[in-house]
UniProtKB/TrEMBL annotation:
Keyword tRNA processing assigned: no
Species this protein is from: Flavobacterium magnum
Protein family per UniProt: Belongs to the class-III pyridoxal-phosphate-dependent aminotransferase family.
Protein name, as recorded: Aspartate aminotransferase family protein
Domain of life: Bacteria
Keywords attached to this entry: Aminotransferase, Pyridoxal phosphate, Transferase
Length: 449
């Protein structure tokens, strides 16, 4: 490639906008950042500007950017074999599958490889229905399970509303336990009991023999890192066992060390029947998802055809990236670092409160965190409500513009600032990112009523 062949930053942006479509956006308002390279917790824009990545891309680049150990593993695999049909197998498929069985608890020993998180969810739905002979799937209103029709339907993220007419049938939604009217002033034990009574009531109302599976995030992510009350997931899992319903954990965002454990559900003392994986599985170096299935479910298909499939099931190059990434989690002690840096992050957030009255609750597990930004300190009202309209996002948009201007990349959504840096982050880098967030919070501090 000659010097004349290299596109300018402006041309890259212009051609990307003219000849491609960007997700979740009105195309005229898209303003992408043109990234030339990335390393560790930093992105480097064309022109040299350094940007600290405080959301690990899409909460997925868990090992950090640009780790050449993954590149080397991918190149080595491509030099052997880059693709085989799913009816064949490879050494890398054997090695990764055994490794996943080792790190998953209980009898989660069977890996079905997919392309991404939402295809893991879709195949979990299909497999749950095939296994149980039932048809209904129960999810949460404040959950996100991907952008396919199945994933959008079982979740409740408002991005799905434009596609409501295309919804998958037989999906049922639960409200979250902390949003029930009249429960605010009750003690925790009473709230937990009433919340689980509500879940059981829904099971009966929907027909206990009609429900194939519950799908819950191991830890809440894009809805605002909302916390399950202590004992809630364990109680829901017990109800699933009582009524012969499968429990599917969506670990696409919360898996692979993000919460300080291999999987978010491990913070709740349960073992699901199926686990949906992606994102941190390869740290997004290549597209790959996985549906991890219990021996109990897999046994049904020993002599009965399992009627789910994908062209790229078990793609060897993506599997090579995944095994290399898992090895890095272990060799670099990234899960241990996540717990240490998560505690440091929480302590630093508390120190900042005296300077920023608009700071609300900070919900965090490991390095999956979300900070509430307040409009009214007395009432706790956020600067923008859940699923805010454009007219309500003035301050939110100003904060988002300021963090970008100052060289930080993260999600600022509604009344939330997400904080989920790569798991290799250091204390100095946390301080660097929080200093930028602190500058941006001056905007909401000034708007506080």
């Amino acid at each position: 490639m000659t010097k004349e062949d290299i596109l300018s930053k402006e041309q890259i942006i212009a051609d990307s906008k003219e000849f491609s479509l960007f997700s979740w956006s009105a195309q005229a308002s898209v303003n992408p950042i043109a990234i030339e390279r990335a390393e560790g917790v930093y992105l480097y824009e064309y022109g040299g500007k350094r940007i600290i990545d405080f959301s690990s891309g899409l909460m997925s680049v868990n090992i950090g950017h640009g780790d050449q150990r993954v590149t080397d593993a991918v190149v080595e695999q491509m030099q052997k074999v880059s693709f085989v049909t799913p009816s064949c197998t490879t050494e890398i498929r054997a090695r990764l599958s055994r490794k996943l069985a080792e790190i998953c608890p209980g009898d989660l020993n069977k890996a079905f490889y997919t392309l991404c998180g939402t295809s893991s969810i879709d195949n979990a739905i299909k497999l749950a229905r095939l296994y149980t002979g039932r048809h209904k799937i129960i999810g949460r209103y404040r959950a996100f399970h991907g952008g396919s029709i199945g994933g959008m339907t079982v979740g409740g993220d408002p991005r799905k509303l434009a596609n409501d007419s295309q919804q998958m049938p037989n999906a049922v939604h639960l409200d979250d336990p902390y949003y029930f009217f009249g429960m605010k002033n009750l003690d925790e034990a009473t709230k937990l009991s009433l919340s689980l009574e509500y879940v059981e009531r829904v099971i009966h109302l929907e027909g206990k023999t009609n429900i194939a599976a519950f799908i819950f995030e191991g830890e809440s992510g894009s809805s605002g890192c909302l916390k399950y009350p202590k004992g809630y997931l364990k109680g829901v899992k017990a109800l699933c066992e009582k009524y012969g319903i499968l429990f599917v954990a969506d670990e696409v965002m919360s898996g692979f060390g993000r919460t300080g454990k291999w999987f978010g559900f491990e913070n709740h003392g349960i073992v699901p029947d199926m686990v949906c994986m992606a994102k941190g599985l390869t740290a997004s170096y290549l597209p790959l998802g996985c549906l991890m299935v219990s021996d109990k479910i897999a046994e049904k298909f020993e002599n009965t055809p399992m009627m789910i499939g994908l062209t790229y099931n078990g793609h060897p190059v993506a599997l090579a990236a995944a095994l290399a990434v898992i090895n890095i989690y272990e060799s670099d002690r990234l899960i241990e670092n996540t717990r240490e840096m998560g505690a440091y992050l929480e302590s630093r957030i508390e120190e900042m409160r005296s300077q920023h009255p608009s700071m609300g609750t900070f919900r965090n597990t490991g390095l999956l965190g979300c900070l509430d930004i307040l409009k009214n300190k007395t009432t706790g009202e956020l600067i923008a409500p859940y699923n805010a309209a454009a007219d309500d996002l003035k301050v939110t948009n100003q904060i988002a513009a300021k963090v970008r201007e100052l060289g930080l990349y993260t999600f600022v959504r509604w009344g939330y600032i997400f904080i989920a840096p790569p798991l290799c982050v250091t204390k100095d880098q946390i301080d660097e990112g929080l200093a930028i967030i602190g500058e941006a919070l001056r905007i909401s501090d000034a708007a506080l009523v």
